[in-house]
Here is the input.
Amino acid sequence: MVPSWTETLLEAGVEVVGRTSFCVHPTSSVVRVGGTKDWNLPRVRSLGADLLVLDREENPVFMSVDSGLPVWASHIRSLADVAPALLDLSSLLGNEVLREWSGRWSAVAAADPCGGWPGIVEWGRRPVGEVCSVVYIIWRDPWMAVGPETFIGSVLAKTGYPVFSFVEKYPVVDFAKFDRDSTLLLFSSEPFPFLRKRKGLEELGFPYAFVDGESFSWFGVRALRFLESVLSARE
Here is the structure.
């Protein structure tokens, strides 16, 4: 029930019998059972699964209670949480690919942060001077961002972005509180489709760019490959 884990399990050769409609990588004929916050429970039960894979941030509690299936749930809050989760899944499923990826994640988590502008798909307005803080925007109406104490925040920090120090994990944003000369707005391609819905972004008056949200938020094999490519590029 987690797009990140669905992709990771499929690529590791695990038999996945059900997925959410948001589990779009890799393209497959695996049966869709609903979304990450709701589902078709009779369909879930009809698939004969041995294990229900959840994440505490992405899925509601009722899924672990109502399914009637054995449950494995991750709690991914930062880069440091991914390697232990992969190792646990590897032991549970007897899968050596997941074990290898766990080791690679440990190396990524221990690596020094790098610099540059990784993950940017397209610039809207480039910054003129020094960028002192970055605000990663995930939603509008209301405008919402991510704080440093999230998985996305930890990926941003590892890739060298100076993340704005919000107290909340997913705060509602007041743009009047940011300096327009030294703040860069990063508009994620998901969950809000900013790449397709750009109206009004220029009027905010900040330098801004569009980033591939999957690279920053899909915490399985996708973010691993993204971070490995970024870290290797500096060598």
In short: The chain has a mean pLDDT of 95. Helices lie at 3-11, 41-46, 61-66, 82-93, 96-110, 151-158, 213-217, 221-233. The domain at 120-218 is CATH 3.40.50.1980 (Rossmann fold).
